[in-house]
Structures are given as structure tokens and as C-alpha cells.
Amino acid sequence: MPSAPLSVAIITKNEEQNLPDCLGSVAFADEIVVLDSGSTDRTGEIARDAGAMWFCEPWKGYGAQKNSALQKCSHDWVLVVDADERVPVQTAGTIREILAGGELASAYAFRRKNYFHGRWIKGADWWPDYVVRLKRRSRGRYEGSTHEKWTTDGEVKRLDCSIEHFSFHSYSDLFRALNDYSTQLAEQMYSRGKRGGPLDAFSHGLWTFLRSYFLKLGFSEGFDGLMISLTQAGGTFLKYSKLYEMDRFGGALEDNRRL
């Protein structure tokens, strides 16, 4: 049976450092679509030089941006990857085997190997980090603006093969993400009618640290594991603190900056 054609969808902004290796790892696909949100570096040039279809649209949130990228793909089967992810050769072979098979699920999840300071982090709840990446775009869509999820009426099958993730390069990266994601998640929770107080911030933050560092073996990763667990806990603490701030002072966090 001939293999079903495959598109790759990538959303970007200022990814000139990550994009070349990402594009190289998905060169086996029949089509690559890159949807940018206003890069000021060489991201667009790199994408076009690699033969990718390049588009630019204003940022709409992770879920909406990825849905827009899916709409621009020509094929029903789409592999969605981030610019800081890589698809190993063995995983690429598995994808081709799946698309050449008969009975197919509607989506497939891969184990994601998260790297930090040049090594694979297995503790602190960073492994196995299952992410849905291969999917039939006609059978679902992304929901949520941050930490978006793929929703489908069909089967999602977990695979043993992995993709590689190089998201954070330093402790500064961890702290920047802590602040940015906590703001986005707090605003998302607030818009859904969820409220919280100082006790929620403390209890959820403490539980996140205990879970990450002890239950999920963050201590086995040395000082890196401690920093990862602390920033995860800090992000949770800030998320609920910002939710409380919006409830206490009203409106979005952007409006509260003028208080």
C-alpha cells in the first residue's frame, strides 16, 4: 500500500537558531508549512531557502495559531512540530511505516526527550512527556491558547519512538518561561471563570515542587533537577497569584500594570 502523503506544520517567531535543524529533521515529509508571527530575524529566509511554504499572520495564541497552520497544509496527515524539536531518523521511519499501513488511528503521540544543558533530563516530570504530534487534521482541532490540546473524536495511539526537544538553554530561559506562561495561563483561567486566593497559590505551588522534585525524581538530576522543580513550582505559584490579582483588582494583567 502506498504511503499517505504527509505535511509538516511549524509555527515560529524569531527561530533562526532552531529552525535549520528542525527543518532538516523533517525533510522526509512531502510538504512543510511554516506559519510565522512577525519574526525580525532570518526565520522567513531560512524557511523559504529550505523549500518550505512560508506564511505570516498575527499571533492568535498557540491553539489558534496551530489550527491556522493546519488549514494551510495540503494533506490530511500532518506532523506538527515546534521549531526547537527534532525528529530522529528512526522516528521518521516509524511515521512512514504508519502512513503506509492499513488501520490507522486518528492521531499519534510520541515520547518527547527534553534536553537541558546538553543532556537528556529524565526526572522532574520531564519524561516520558507524551505529546500528540502526528494527526489527521480532518478529525480534530487544537483547543486552548496556552498548553493547547489536540481534541479528536477518534483514537489517539501512543508510540514507543521519541522526538527530541531543546527548549531551554539556561536558567534564565526557565525563569523567562515561568513568568510568561504563568501570565498566559492565569488569563486563560480567569476567562473561564476560575478564581483563586493566596492559599491556592501556596498550596498548588508547594504540591508542584514536592511532586516534581520527590515523586518525579527531580533530585536525581542534580542541581538542574532542583532548578527545574523550583521553576515549575514558581510558575504554578505565580499562576494562581496572578489569578488572584485579576480577581482582586479586576480585568487582565495588562490593565493592572497601570494601577
Describe this entry's structure for a reader.
The protein has 259 residues and is α/β, with parallel strands linked by helices. It has two domains: 6-165, Spore Coat Polysaccharide Biosynthesis Protein SpsA, Chain A (Alpha-Beta Complex); 171-256. Helices cover 41% and strands 24% of the residues. It has helices at 19-25, 43-49, 62-71, 89-100, 171-191, 198-215, 222-249, 253-256, and strands at 6-12, 31-36, 53-56, 77-80, 85-86, 107-116, 119-120, 129-136, 140-143, 149-152, 156-165. Strands 1, 2, 3, 4, 5, 6, 7, 8 and 11 form a nine-stranded mixed sheet that branches. It has a two-stranded antiparallel ribbon with strand order 9-10. The longest helix has 28 residues, at 222-249. It is globular, with a radius of gyration of 19 Å. The mean pLDDT is 95.
